[in-house]
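LAB NOTEBOOK - FOLDING QUEUE
OPERATOR: T.R.
BATCH SIZE: 2
PURPOSE: Compare the predicted structure-token outputs for two unrelated chains run back to back under identical settings.
PRIORITY: normal
REVIEWER: second-year student, initials M.K.

ITEM 1
FIELD SEQUENCE / FIELD STRUCTURE:
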Amino acid sequence: MDQRVQRVKTLIESNFDRDLSVSEMARFVDLSVSHLQHLFKSDLEQSPAQYVQALRLERARELLETSSLSVKQILIRIGVKDRSNFERRFKHVYKLTPVQYRRMTGLHATRNMTDHATAETAIH
């Protein structure tokens, strides 16, 4: 992998919650925007913007599985401003909306079962 692509990947991974423009990324490694996009596509088979989107989707999925943050809080944490667009992309990749995904995964389902068991114990 080209060292400049690796440096931009590291920049993105450290700042994916910010709106880094491709021109900022290109300046970071002293390349033109078109040259950076070409290198990215050549090395990673995706554009820098697609890489950012994929990283945000993956981080959202991780947070849905491991945190009790609301979907809104997760979107803020990962730097997403357009919830409906993000939910469409999430559903396209994971075949579920973020809320549906959370229901199907551990933490939320486990918490609901624990809350339900605690409520039943309190009733009896």
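ITEM 2
FIELD SEQUENCE / FIELD STRUCTURE:
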Amino acid sequence: MAKPSLKQIMMLTLFFKKQFITKIREGKKTQTRRLKQPRIKIGKTYNLRSSYTRVLTEKILITDIFQQYLGEISVEDIRKEGFDSLTEFINIWCEIYGNYDPEEIIWVVEFQYVGNTEMFKVKP
């Protein structure tokens, strides 16, 4: 079987900062918000990636993708994001994206942790 290209690998993974991988494994993070529409599909599984080149054998299953205003995040959503408070969420958001604009339209991805599985397979 041919070795997958870097582009193929990136299309079969979803990047999370290392600090969030543990929360995903523990089921404490089941949602993520992104500025750009992720190249993923509902019902598909994706390997976790903790850096540009570090692809993990662990996978998540995408259960929903939708848009909303960043400021519409609820208390339940904050918990699904793996945070205890809105302040904590905003602080991390600002660390990642530079600023928090509640009127900004973002993408919400809901997922469930599938665990360790075979690494992705690339079709010939």
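REVIEWER COMMENT (ITEM 2): Residues 48 and 56 are 5 Å apart (CA to CA).
FOLLOW-UP: none requested
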